[in-house]
Write a structure and sequence with these properties.
Elements: H1 2-15, E1 60-65, H2 67-70, E2 78-88, E3 95-105, E4 114-120, H3 142-150, E5 154-158, H4 174-191, E6 195-204, H5 206-221, E7 226-233, H6 241-248, H7 253-269, H8 281-290, H9 298-307, H10 318-329, E8 342-347, H11 355-368, E9 372-377, H12 387-399
Parallel strand pairs: 4-5, 4-6, 6-7, 7-8, 8-9
Antiparallel strand pairs: 1-2, 2-3, 3-5
Length: about 400
């Protein structure tokens, strides 16, 4: 018990951002600095227990060890693997191929198997090299994973569609990312033995939207899994308001990089969306640098972020604004009733996501039906101040305790 409490205290620092240096929802800036190749880690090897003979969502195509992860301090008490698995697009329901990573504690599993945390990562980029599973640090998220493993959970973390594999990353498409998180649980069960059907979804920022969407879709999409709850810290539930702020020139510096990544992602998916309808000459000059998530481009990327202003992404015409607004609205949450209780944190001084947007999304979700625990901090930023409350809410779901409904 003492060990578990100490680990939970460490998690408070992680959730509040003290030990986590990647700015959530701030594309690309600084994520790469966390990767250091573990000495004498050896090459990846096939996972002997992996079941590669399945088909359908969650079935495995590949599973290889992550020796670099397990040689790090935060990975010392886990067995880790990189997986490539089948999933589904939330936009057109077509089959997709997604990568990710899975982890189990060392030692014997408890009765019923390891309970599962499906972790949704914050924004790291929109190109294939920006996937956490490609780095021995998981681009900073190994610290999160290590905490949950120490608490006795198996963990799975989807890279999200288009990161780590071929294809286009539908940035802020929570519906697709939510399906990726659900299928990552299925893929975990096919990688390692003794994995429970009982699971929770936990996400931060972009991953928070994914966790929320996973909650909405789990009952119908994966009825064989027992989702106990979802935890969403600063979710990008409905970002249509960014279009009006871009038009008005009131985007915060943090929101400018978010808008740029959304426009680029949507332009790749929808060729009729003209990038030049949403960027000035200055923004166009920096455009490719802003979407570069490689270590070599870090300095230029930081300069580019400082070089764009609040009006550099303003729609040129009302028609262009309406087109962008509608595309973002198609991805907005909520979209259907919840499958399980949902915990939402949001802050009144979040520089990335306006609190009013999250408040309205929560109200709509309550109207659809469901149980939502709401944690609003008027002076809070993008990270909750009380990480211990977050962890307690999650562990209470596994313990079957009553849940507070703030709807």
């Amino acid at each position: 018990m003492v060990k578990r409490l100490l680990v939970a205290i460490v998690c408070v620092a992680l959730v509040s951002g003290v030990a986590y240096g990647v700015k959530p929802f701030a594309p690309f800036v600084g994520a790469w600095v966390y990767d250091q190749v573990a000495p004498s880690a050896g090459p990846p090897e096939p996972v002997e227990s992996a079941q590669l003979n399945g088909s359908g969502p969650g079935s495995l195509l590949r599973a290889t060890t992550l020796p670099g992860v397990m040689r790090k301090w935060d990975g010392r008490n886990m067995t880790a693997a990189r997986i490539v698995y089948r999933s589904t697009s939330g936009d057109d329901q077509k089959p997709t191929v997604v990568s990710g990573s899975v982890f189990i504690p060392k030692g014997d599993a408890p009765k019923g198997g390891w309970p599962v945390v499906s972790l949704g990562h914050a924004t790291l980029g929109i190109d294939p090299p920006c996937a956490p599973s490609l780095y021995s640090s998981l681009l900073g998220f190994l610290r999160y994973v290590g905490v949950f493993v120490e608490l006795g959970y198996a963990v799975t973390m989807a890279d999200f569609q288009g990161l780590g594999t071929e294809g286009i990353h539908p940035y802020t498409d929570s519906r697709t990312a939510g399906l990726n998180m659900i299928d990552a649980v299925r893929a975990l069960q096919k990688t390692f033995p003794n994995i429970s059907n009982r699971w929770v979804a936990v996400g931060d920022s972009q991953g928070a939207g994914a966790a929320w969407a996973a909650d909405e879709q789990a009952k119908d999409y994966a009825p064989e899994l027992d989702l106990l709850g979802a935890l969403a810290a600063s979710p990008g539930a409905d970002l249509t308001g960014l279009v009006d702020k871009a038009a008005d020139g009131t985007l915060t510096p943090e929101q400018r990089s978010v808008v740029q990544a959304i426009i680029e992602s949507l332009a790749r998916l929808h060729p009729d969306l003209n990038r030049d309808d949403f960027r000035t000459a200055g923004a166009k000059h920096y455009w490719n640098v802003l979407t570069d998530c490689t270590p070599a481009g870090a300095y230029k990327r930081a300069q580019a972020a400082d070089g764009v202003g609040p009006r550099d992404f303003a729609p040129r015409t009302p028609e262009a604004a309406n087109q962008l607004r509608e595309l973002i609205r198609n991805w907005a949450l909520p979209q259907k009733p919840l499958s399980a209780p949902l915990y939402v944190y949001y802050g009144g001084k979040d520089p990335y996501i306006d609190a009013a947007w999250t408040k309205v999304a929560i109200e709509r979700a309550c109207a659809l039906g469901g149980t939502i625990t709401i944690r609003y901090e008027p002076d809070g930023g993008h990270n909750p101040s009380d990480g211990l409350e977050v962890i307690r809410w999650m562990t209470d779901r596994f313990d079957g305790k009553p849940v507070q409904n703030d709807c």
